[in-house]
Structure formats: C-alpha cells, structure tokens
Amino acid sequence: MRIIDLLILFISLVVSGETFALDIEKLFMPGDVIKGHVKFEPDCKQCHKRGREITQKELCLDCHEKVKQDIQQEQGFHSKNDKAATSDCRVCHSDHKGRDAKIVWLDTNRFNHQQTDYELLGKHKQTECTGCHKQDKKYRQAPSACIDCHKDNDIHENKLGEKCASCHNPKAWSSEQFDHDKTKFKLKLSHERVSCDLCHVENSYKDTPTQCVSCHAIKDVHKNRFDNKCQDCHTEDKWNKPTFKHDRDTRYKLKDIHSSVSCHTCHTKKIRKKSQWKSTGHALRNCYSCHKLDDVHKGKSGEKCQDCHNQKSWSESSFNHDTKTEFALKGAHKKASCQACHQSDIKGEKTDKACYSCHKHNDVHKGQQGKLCDSCHNDSSWWLEDVRYDHELTDFPLIGQHAVIGCESCHLSSAFKDAKSACVDCHQFDDVHEQAFGKECQQCHNSNDWLIWQFDHDKTDFKIEGVHTELHCHLCHFEPFDENRKKNTLCIDCHRGDDIHDGNFGPECDNCHTQDDFKLIDIRLMRSFGR
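^ that's the sequence the OP posted. Answer follows.
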C-alpha cells in the first residue's frame, strides 16, 4: 500500500469518530504491552497524551502511587537514585515488548543498597538478597524490623520485647551490647565470658539467684563438705584456683605433681569447719595409701614407693637400672615400662637378657635369621630404619641397579630367605622374549640396567649376515625355549613359504641364494654345484 493511501485511510478513520481513532492508534502500536498493563492496552490515553500539558512520567506515577509518595517524601530508591528521580520512567521501564517482557532490570550484584531507606551494615552485607526479599514479593515489601527476620533466633522467646537493637547489632547477632553492670549483679572476670543462658535458664531474667552455689553446685567437687560458702576459697577469676593454701594451712605441703591434683582425691571425708582442716587425721600422708592402685609392681617391691618414685611424676623412677643391675638400659629400652620385661616378683626373678626372649613376638623373619637379633638390630629402634645388614655377605651381593632399589622389591615379606634369586623370578614381566631365550637372563642382561644387554650371535651355530642383520630376534625366536628341541639353522626352516621350487632343489637354499636377498641368486654358486 502506498503512503498516500495510508494517509487517506488515516484521515477517514479520524473523521469517522473516536472509536476508529483508537483503532488506528492500536494499529501503530509497536508491540503488546506486559501482562501487568493488559487492562490498559485498549485505552492508550491511560499512558500516553497527545498534548504536552502532562508528561508521561506523571501518568505513570498516577498509577504507581507508592513510588510517587516516595519521591514526594524524598525516601526510597526512586528518590535517592539520581537517575530514577530525574529521568522519565520509560528510560528504565519501557513497554510494548510483549506480554512476558521484563521491564524491571535490577542487577543484584551491583545494586547499591545505600540508595534505599535501609543501609546494609555488618553481617547484612554478606546476606543473600533472597534472605530478605522473598520470591513474588516487591522489593519495597521487604521487612526492616529486626524481629521480622530474627524471630526464629530470638532465644528470649519474645520475653524481652521486639527492640532487638537495644542489645544486638548488625555486626553479629550473637554480639550483645547489653550492660550487665547496670543490674544488681555486676559481671567480673570469668563471669564476663559466660553465655547468658548459663545463669538465665529458659530465658528467665527475673529473680535470678546470685549465690555461687546456685550455679556452681554441679562443680562442687567437695560435695558440700564446705557448706555453701564457695567465696571463702574461690574467686570470680578462676573456679579451679582457690585461695586456700595447703602449704600454709596444713601440715602436708603440696609439691610438684601434688600441687595440681584435686582436693577430693585425698580428702574423702566431710569437713564442716575450717578449724577441722588441721586437726582431722582423715588424710593419710604415706605414698602407698593413695598410690596402691597405681602400683604396677603389685606389691612385689614393697610399700616404700619413695625409694624409687618422687613427687614430680609417678611414672618417673629414680631407680638406676644401669648401676644396680647387669643390664644397662640404652636407646628405646629407657622408655620401656618395667613390667614389659619383669613379669614376676622383681626381687626373686631371673630375667633373661637375650633379645629374643622379649622380642620373639616381633620376629617378622619367622625364625629364619636365628636368635641373634643384635647382629642386625640395636637398642635405638627395632624397626627397619635403624637396622644394620650387609647384603654383600649373602649369596646374592647387590651390584648395579640392585644396590639402589628398595628391599621390598625382592623381599615381599620379612622372611628374607623365601626370596628368589633367579633373574626370571623378578623380571618375568620384563621378558619381552616371552621365554624364547629361556630363563638364563644373565647371558645377555646385567645388573647395571635391564635395557643394557650384549649378545654376539656370530658365536652361535648361525652367523648373522646380509639382511639377517636387520631382522628382529622374534622373527626366528618366537617359541618358548626348549633345550631338547632341534635348532632351526637351515634356510628352508624359515623360508619354506618363499620356496617357489616346491622343494625340487632340496632344503639347501644357500646353494643358489645368499643372505643379501633371498629373491636373488648367485650364478657362481649354481655353477659350483652343477646347476
């Protein structure tokens, strides 16, 4: 249709009435509007005005009242974002792009939340957008009160109200800023580090007890022997460091390891008064009264523990095994426990000093190496890294590559005499000849390297000449070696398939042919044999 025809049609429709004018507007509409604007699509003037008496932005805000209110009250994104506040709506939200078109473009990764009424601080900066902005909800509908998001984290069960910010802050929900010193119970020293629910059980903040025993009864190792006056010996600094001085207030001074043991370990009876601490004789002061259960000697060495032991460590004995016995403790023997060697009464027993008597169960050689363990092992360590052994004194001295490989390459177990010594026992998987040359690998190979080998075929019954020098060994040697099988040295053994004479000239091909080329013949050879 020509342009003039379109103009005539347009004028006629305008003249025909307003209904046709609307139809012509739809005719020139660039595309369908989005789903949210479908109800306005038949009436273009809802969003568009022909004159300039009102802008399209004003028409948009007439429908989007909340956005208009934000701009008027200078709040919200459309007010604080310079582009949104000054530009027409269609700059960011253009329509007529189809029913499913997306006209709200928001890059959540680059969005500046400071341009809203809720600035992100602390942990809120690390929170995913979907944590506050739920699906199918407008961004402006996101809650802003702490309790809206942290209701499930409210361990106080709403007993402290909804003003979370009075104690918590955006840095961390668990970071409280409540000042407990403004209460009747000031938090000092260790009390400053305990969690609220340790004293305020089930979030109860009224009538909380302030007596030590109210919270520490479960830690009262004295089992109420000193009544409820915990403060007489303990402080708020550390519960396990009492002010009571045993060296000062008793006749038994606590030294070394005794200074760190708990009171009830020795004191098992009730003591009600401080005046009784010195007068009562319920705590025995001899070693055996407390350490009877620790006596690994089972009474075999008597009850004078102090002859060998001291207060520094019960496991450290002052008994000198090197000077008082015929067996000096060296190396790992210094760390061994007494009962490891002494199984019966120490005073009357005769302990076997031979290595094998104690280490028989450690003999991984299964008795193959005899009982003289110290010929290879020493006191420092029973294990491999400290073993001394000279393989050169065996029937298989280690030379070449054998000197640098690990023992376990040949010795699959510690029963060393079970190891094989023939080459093929270890190198059967390296035998590319597939036993065609037998099992005597050392005839060609040596210990320097498996791939370094030497063999002179001219010293055999078949001298290699001509094209034979270029052939691979496997072309002739392809069957497993059998010393009883006849060796193939005649030409016909390999060239029977090449014999075009069908055997008429016999098996001695070399009467006419040479090793340079089987297809060529030597006339001189033929004449010498009368051919």
